[in-house]
Design brief:
The complex is a heterodimer of chains A (267) and B (382).
Chain A lengths: L2 E6 L2 E3 L21 E3 L1 H17 L1 E9 L4 H10 L3 E6 L6 H15 L3 E5 L10 H9 L2 E6 L8 H4 L6 E2 L5 E8 L2 E8 L2 E5 L11 H7 L4 E4 L1 H4 L27 H10 L5
Parallel strand pairs in A: 1-4, 1-6, 4-5, 5-12, 6-11, 7-11
Antiparallel strand pairs in A: 2-3, 8-9, 9-10
Helix pairs in contact in A: 2-6, 3-4
Chain B lengths: L6 H28 L4 H10 L17 H14 L1 H20 L2 H13 L5 E4 L15 E5 L2 E12 L6 E7 L9 E7 L6 E3 L13 E12 L3 E2 L5 H37 L1 E2 L2 E2 L4 H29 L5 H26 L10 H11 L6 H13 L3
Parallel strand pairs in B: 1-4
Antiparallel strand pairs in B: 2-3, 3-7, 4-5, 5-8, 6-7, 9-10
Classes of the chains: A alpha/beta (267), B alpha+beta (382).
């Protein structure tokens, strides 16, 4: 039973770049920054490709932003996604606007499943998947993870961790929750969000990169989708976390226990 | 003039960079130490398209432009130049066919490499007694009906132990010098009398497999001859014109790795109460590395671009190979110097780079041969 899966490819700052807040505290300094696909989204693309490899179907990848986000769309296409949707938008966006845009795209594309990163590594909001499921009225299975280790044979043979039921009407998802794993079943259509432990994304191959060039990128704008993308959330100030203070050395275990008990009050 | 990369080029470069960083580099010290063939990594590289990049579309190949191949070569060599040499050995071996084979031969010999990208190929030109003196090679090809009978020995053959396909240069008449050379495809499945020698215990690029090939009355069908008798020398030289930019990029990848290590180390290493990066003696070495790497890169990119533009690149690719190889030797030597005693230890990564860099000054035309080519082109008036 072929699946149509909608995935996301947010453009985020590469964590290996040096991220600096500008002096006014209104944003980060863009000079010299590198960008990549949000790693959680990349895991979503991988999982969607594994599911469609197993069951047939189509993977549609969407990204929102300036023309630059086409780089991330091409990356997902090079991995194997079939079609891309670019929502052309310049300026800040909040999670409500993003979920609203994705909602309209989901209503147009009518996927069986949407797989989103549980959060993006830039602002770590962890909200869009939940909003999207709520507004679409779909089931949600957040923090999809895996029972086996990523080093396991199952992973090496690339078994999907999101399992489609035999009748094709629901998925079983292993969720990472505080203190362990929880397995839920969600009727389709549904929204799933990904944990880091769900899979190891494949490398883009050179033939994949060359083929990606001829795959379609469909363009929309918030206006064409009928979404007011004006942020309702304002960022007032960004600042670096305070530098960590140097640690201390203790001469013996007794002193350590004493300090943990009386200074840190941890015991 | 335009120095920017296209979106495709950036994507290909990024793919190679990721593979080099996540797959090649973490295993490079192991394969250097053991001098084993990194089969798993070579297979994965082949499946991802980092081998046989030069194969034409007519046989199902990617036919990547030379500039794109050059960008990829830098990244692969940054990951491990020994592994990269094994990967590019295929392209080197298949280039004479890309340049000179008939449509039937391309179908017969090149198509299998796009069907099964894990097949390996070797370029067999050098001999125990013929290195820089290519025209002096002694492996003979004696015509007998529909066959040539090959006799002789080839030396320093990358991938030789594992290759399925050998592109062999031999002579029909040693007295004819370079006019007597021809190019033959020898398939591993074919011949009786064909053996490979032991894997060489090399100073650097130890992950690459290097053996001798022995031909003892090996019968090769005439249908396996690429081009005509007497065209072997030209095919070999045109192949080297095509591959020289890639070899130069290897030098740049090695040098960049050395510079990055040296830069990191000089920021951390404290002497006289401050990081050694604050001393001009160290700064000057780092500054020279950075400028020389960039100069070598631009020169080499140009030598690849000339090919994509349909121009002869013999002179510029010889500039590039000469400059990049000598530059990498200096940069890696200075990186060891910046590391001081630690640089001389195998526990640290820079001495490997110095050993690896040395080979670039030697293989595929020594730095001295590059100078001869340059001088000859200059004096001949280009």
């Amino acid at each position: 039973m072929p699946l149509k899966i909608l995935v996301t490819a947010k453009r985020v700052e590469d964590a290996e770049s040096k991220i600096k807040v500008n002096p006014a505290g209104t944003g980060i300094v863009p000079d010299g920054l590198k960008y990549k696909i949000n790693p959680f989204d990349e895991i979503g693309v991988e999982e969607a490709l594994r599911l469609t490899a197993k069951h047939g179907g189509e993977v549609v990848v969407v990204s929102i932003g300036t023309k630059d986000v086409q780089e991330q769309l091409r990356h997902a296409l090079a991995m194997g996604a079939h079609k891309a949707i670019w929502v052309n938008h310049t300026g800040p966006l909040d999670q409500l606007a993003i979920a609203g845009l994705l909602q309209k795209i989901a209503e147009k594309e009518k996927p069986d499943l949407a797989i989103l990163g549980k959060q993006a590594i830039d602002d770590d909001q962890n909200q869009v998947g939940q909003y999207l499921a709520e507004w679409l009225g779909w089931a949600q299975a957040t923090f999809a993870s895996k029972e086996e280790s990523l080093e396991s044979d199952a992973e090496k043979s690339k078994t999907p961790a999101l399992k489609l039921a035999a009748d094709g009407k629901s998925i079983t998802v292993v969720r990472e929750v505080d203190g362990g794993l929880q397995t839920v079943e969600a009727p389709l259509p549904a929204v799933a969000t990904t944990e880091l432990r769900l899979n190891q994304p494949r490398f883009a191959s050179l033939p994949g990169i060359m083929k990606a060039k001829s795959k379609p990128i469909e363009e929309h704008t918030p206006a064409s989708l009928g979404v007011d993308a004006t942020p309702k959330l304002t960022v007032t100030k960004l600042e670096h976390p305070p530098a960590r203070k140097a640690g201390i050395k203790v001469p013996d275990v007794a002193t350590l226990v004493d300090k943990l008990k009386n200074e840190a009050k941890a015991l | 003039m335009h120095f920017g990369l296209s979106d495709d080029e950036k994507a290909l470069q990024e793919a190679a960079r990721k593979f080099a960083r996540e797959v090649m580099r973490p295993r490079s010290a192991h394969y250097d130490e053991k001098s084993e063939f990194p089969r798993e990594i070579i297979t994965q590289a082949a499946e991802l398209g980092f081998m046989n990049m030069t194969l034409p579309a007519e046989v199902g190949g990617l036919e990547l432009p030379h500039v794109a191949q050059a960008l990829i070569a830098e990244e692969l060599a940054w990951g491990c130049s020994g592994m990269a040499t094994s990967m590019i050995a295929n392209d080197l071996a298949l280039l004479p066919l890309v340049l000179g084979a008939s449509a039937e031969q391309k179908e017969r010999f090149l198509r299998p490499f796009t069907g099964d990208p894990t097949r390996l190929a070797s370029f067999a030109l050098t001999e125990p007694g013929a290195g820089s003196d290519v025209a002096g090679l002694r492996t003979t090809a004696r015509r007998e009906g529909d066959f040539y009978v090959l006799n002789g020995q080839k030396q320093w053959i990358s991938n030789g132990e594992y290759a399925h396909h050998f592109t062999v240069f031999a002579t029909t008449d040693t007295s004819k010098k370079h006019k007597g050379l021809l190019c033959l495809v020898v398939e591993r499945t074919l011949p009786e009398g064909f053996t490979t020698g032991k894997h060489e215990n090399k100073m650097g690029q130890r992950a690459s497999n290097t053996v001798t090939l022995n031909f003892d009355n090996v019968k090769v069908p005439v249908a396996n001859r690429i081009g005509e008798e007497g065209e072997g020398f030209l095919l070999a030289m045109s192949t080297l014109d095509n591959s020289r930019p890639l070899t130069a990029m290897f030098a740049i990848g090695i040098a960049r790795a050395a510079m990055e290590h040296a830069l990191d180390y000089s920021r951390q290493r404290q002497q006289f109460g401050k990081p050694i990066a604050e001393f001009q003696a160290i700064q000057f070495m780092l500054a020279d590395m950075a400028a020389d790497i960039e100069a070598a890169r631009l020169l080499t990119h140009k030598s690849a671009w000339l090919l994509d533009d349909g121009q002869r690149n013999t002179l510029v690719s010889s500039y590039a190979k000469r400059f990049a190889a000598d530059m990498a030797m200096k940069a890696t030597t200075d990186a060891v110097q910046i590391y001081g005693g630690y640089g001389y230890s195998r526990e640290y990564p820079v001495e490997k780079l110095m050993r690896d860099a040395k080979l670039i000054q030697v293989y595929e035309g020594t730095s001295q041969v590059q100078r001869i080519v340059i001088a000859r082109e200059l004096i001949r008036g280009l």
